[in-house]
């Protein structure tokens, strides 16, 4: 018998959330619509020749100057295999817990600067230290490169003495794809299974078939479906075999419990439902939490939105349950 899929619904959107969505719809979405159209027109070969990563690095540094880590959070640069990463310690944490985090950005954009503050909040909710892997991204690199970096991050945690049953893989958007796909990569290499996976609005369908015709294609305040299609084309072009390594393609029957959070108004809600259904069919415990009328990865706006803070609290509850651990947290010095 299939494992039940638990679907929960978050708080109704506050006036602040509605204002954020309207503002994003009026400013961010038109810009990304144009970028997506240009990307589709240019094609993967032209995109690979553009200085996308150089521009992204500058933008990420600027974001990092504004989005400071939460107060009392320690951030230490580290090396993880062939790439850089950051070790993020919230003020209150259980030293035996760890979150292995992969930032969003469609596997092409963002980095430590854009995500440091949110990862700090996720780590605090989990009462865990976090290792953020700044994985290699398209169009210069392949999904297989990113998965290698993900596996290296997991090995790094094991080498630090973390037990697999105290490690949670986590990510948002494209990082959610990586967190879900990384479980299969770990198991295929004979590594022990982590305790759980957290995926916030995961982008799991490379070709975009599950999003085709979805009403949120027009409703999404930030992400154009065409942009997801363009990114999928680059992933498939860089290494056609990588399509078979995406979460909707790999066997998932031996996955750990999964929490998926998404907005009812975003285009990646289709991906969230498709992934949850696939996990349920494979008898994997999965909880899908749908939050009404929020922007994509609204958890990043926790300074402004009470719904984001509520979502983070539910993440903490999920991780507590998955780790089945009441170990005493300790306070780090500021």
Attribute tags:
nine-stranded mixed β-sheet, two-stranded antiparallel sheet, alpha/beta, single chain
What does the model show?
The structure is a single chain. The chain is of the alpha/beta class and 334 residues long. It has one domain: 3-Layer(aba) Sandwich (Rossmann fold), CATH 3.40.50.1820. It has 9 helices and 11 strands. It has helices at 15-49, 52-66, 112-126, 143-159, 174-188, 216-219, 225-238, 269-281, 306-323; strands at residues 5-9, 74-80, 83-89, 92-93, 98-102, 129-133, 167-172, 196-200, 258-263, 286-291, 330-331. Strands 1-10-9-8-7-5-6-3-2 form a 9-stranded mixed β-sheet, sandwiched between helices. Helix 2 (52-66) crosses helix 3 and helix 3 crosses helix 9 (306-323). It is globular and about 50 Å long. 49% of the residues are buried. The mean pLDDT is 93.
Q: What is the class in the CATH system? A: Alpha Beta
Estimate percent helicity.
40-55%
Q: Write the CATH fold name.
A: Rossmann fold
Tell me what portion of residues adopts beta-strand conformation. 15-25%
Report the end-to-end length measured between terminal Cα atoms. Answer: 50 Å
Mean pLDDT, as a whole number? 93
How does CATH name the architecture? 3-Layer(aba) Sandwich
Structural class estimated from helices and strands: alpha/beta
Shape estimate: globular
Number of strand segments: 11
Q: Output the strand order for the largest sheet.
A: 1-10-9-8-7-5-6-3-2
């Amino acid at each position: 018998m299939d494992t039940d899929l638990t679907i929960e619904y978050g708080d109704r959107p506050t006036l602040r959330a509605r204002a954020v969505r309207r503002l994003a719809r009026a400013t961010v979405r038109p810009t990304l619509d144009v970028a997506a159209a240009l990307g589709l027109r240019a094609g993967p070969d032209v995109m690979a020749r553009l200085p996308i990563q150089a521009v992204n690095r500058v933008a990420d540094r600027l974001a990092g100057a504004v989005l400071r880590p939460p107060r009392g959070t320690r951030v230490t640069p580290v090396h993880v295999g062939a790439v850089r990463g950051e070790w993020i310690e919230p003020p209150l944490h259980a030293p035996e817990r760890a979150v292995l985090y992969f930032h969003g950005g469609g596997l092409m954009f963002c980095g430590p600067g854009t995500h440091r503050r949110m990862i700090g909040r996720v780590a605090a909710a989990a009462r865990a230290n976090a290792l953020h892997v700044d994985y290699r991204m398209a169009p210069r690199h392949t999904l297989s490169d990113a998965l290698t970096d993900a596996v290296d991050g997991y090995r790094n945690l094991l080498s630090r003495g973390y037990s697999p049953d105290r490690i949670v893989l986590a990510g948002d958007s494209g990082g959610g794809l990586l967190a879900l796909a990384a479980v299969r990569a770990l198991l295929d290499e004979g590594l022990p299974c982590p305790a759980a996976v957290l995926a916030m609005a995961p982008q799991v369908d490379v070709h975009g078939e599950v999003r085709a015709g979805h009403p949120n294609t027009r409703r999404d305040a930030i992400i154009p479906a065409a942009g997801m299609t363009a990114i999928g084309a680059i992933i498939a072009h860089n290494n056609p075999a990588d399509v078979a390594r995406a979460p909707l393609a790999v066997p998932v029957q031996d996955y750990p419990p999964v929490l998926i959070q998404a907005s009812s108004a975003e285009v990646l809600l289709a991906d969230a439902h498709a992934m949850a259904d696939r996990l349920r069919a494979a008898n994997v415990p999965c909880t899908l939490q749908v939050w009404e009328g929020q922007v994509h990865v609204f958890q990043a706006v926790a300074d402004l939105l009470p719904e984001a803070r509520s979502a983070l609290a539910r993440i903490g509850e999920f991780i507590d349950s998955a780790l089945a651990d009441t170990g005493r947290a300790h306070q780090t010095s500021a």
